[in-house]
Amino acid sequence: KPAAGFEGLKMISYEDIGGLKGELQNVRETIELPMRHPELFRKLGIDPPKGVLLYGPPGTGKTLIAKAVANESGAHFISIAGPEVISKYYGESEQRLREIFDEAEENAPAIIFIDELDSIAPKREDVTGEVERRVVAQLLTMMDGLEERGQVVVIGATNRLDAIDQALRRPGRFDREIEIGAPSEEDRIEILRIHTRGMPIEGENRLILKRNEFNCSSGTEKITLEKELKQIDDEVHRVREKMLEEFGSKTNGFVGADLAALAREAAMRALRRYLPIIDLETDEVPQEILESMEIKLSDFRD
Ligand code: ATP
């Protein structure tokens, strides 16, 4: 039976994360290293953490990091959203948490990702509900009870670090806190590069045609074509870099999720430009149209 949240896992890798280099390194040292090489930690007499808190604004890549670390370290991944655990029926929330920890221990190494941790574990003085109080207590009990440290790790994500119960932030619980902030201009360029990786930007189709022509040619023709190919390649490269630079600098305040949406929206605009020439009643879109479809820089603009 697939783990909860498995459908959203896909094969996210470190290559899919833009910016956040230091943060990712920190998460890897804290989670992946002890998972893969517990002997290093045993030898040095240090305890790997049981919990790591990722905090920062929404859409900055907290979930992405958790998925990538699980994937790349081959850990079983269980993802839950805080509010989902809170059940109004007496005792059910605790039962749900116990099941999640059982599943993790049975499938260790494992990562339990709790999104919106603040909704399960708000500061106890803020809490009016009895349920939340019991859930925090249960979560603490489960984390304290983890036997082999480092083989089951809980990653909590929150937009509001100050809203998390202090008891959870003590050593032996979520004892590492890593800020996942909004991306810098350089990071935004990297994120856009990732999200436009597979997109045909202006000029790219011409490059593909020229490449085919080159591959099918021989002798002196190949030498002439090689020069042309190089020229087009440089030109296309320049257009793509220009796009990345322009939209990297124009998007102050955008987080990763916004940049992903920007790239998707540009592709949708391009698609709308082609719709009038596509007969949607026929089963297949003609190859020539498919081969000519491109995303223009203007598709990215307002
Ligand atoms: P929330 O607090 O709302 O749960 P989050 O920080 O967990 O947000 P993610 O779910 O990781 O955000 O990001 C949403 C989407 O935005 C990702 O699936 C990805 O497409 C894109 N994204 C966010 N940050 C990055 C990044 N640093 N690099 C590449 N893509 C990113």
Keywords for this entry:
disordered N terminus; binds adenosine-5'-triphosphate; elongated; 302 residues; 13 helices; CDC48 family AAA ATPase; 5-stranded parallel beta sheet; alpha/beta
Detail the topology: elements first, then pairings.
Elements: H1 21-36, H2 38-44, E1 51-55, H3 62-72, E2 76-81, H4 82-85, H5 92-106, E3 110-115, H6 117-120, H7 130-144, E4 152-158, E5 174-179, H8 185-195, H9 204-216, H10 220-250, H11 256-274, H12 287-292, H13 297-300
Parallel strand pairs: 1-4, 1-5, 2-3, 3-4
The chain binds adenosine-5'-triphosphate.
The site of adenosine-5'-triphosphate (ATP) has 19 residues, from α3, α8 and α11.
Protein name: CDC48 family AAA ATPase
Family: Belongs to the AAA ATPase family. CDC48 subfamily.
Domain AAA+ ATPase: 48-184
The helix/strand class is alpha/beta
Strand order of the largest sheet: 2-3-4-1-5
Q: How big a fraction of the residues is strand?
A: 5-15%
What proportion of the residues is helical, as a percent range?
Answer: 40-55%
Instruction: Specify Rg, calculated over alpha carbons.
Output: 24 Å
Low-pLDDT windows of residues: 1-9
- Quick check: average pLDDT? 88
Rounded to the nearest angstrom, the distance between the terminal CA atoms is 45 Å
Count of helical stretches: 13
- Count the beta strands: 5
Coarse morphology: elongated
Tell me about the largest β-sheet.
5 strands, parallel
Order of helices and strands: HHEHEHHEHHEEHHHHHH
Ligand inventory reads: adenosine-5'-triphosphate
Keywords: ATP-binding, Nucleotide-binding, Repeat
GO molecular function: ATP binding; ATP hydrolysis activity
Protein name: CDC48 family AAA ATPase
Family: Belongs to the AAA ATPase family. CDC48 subfamily.
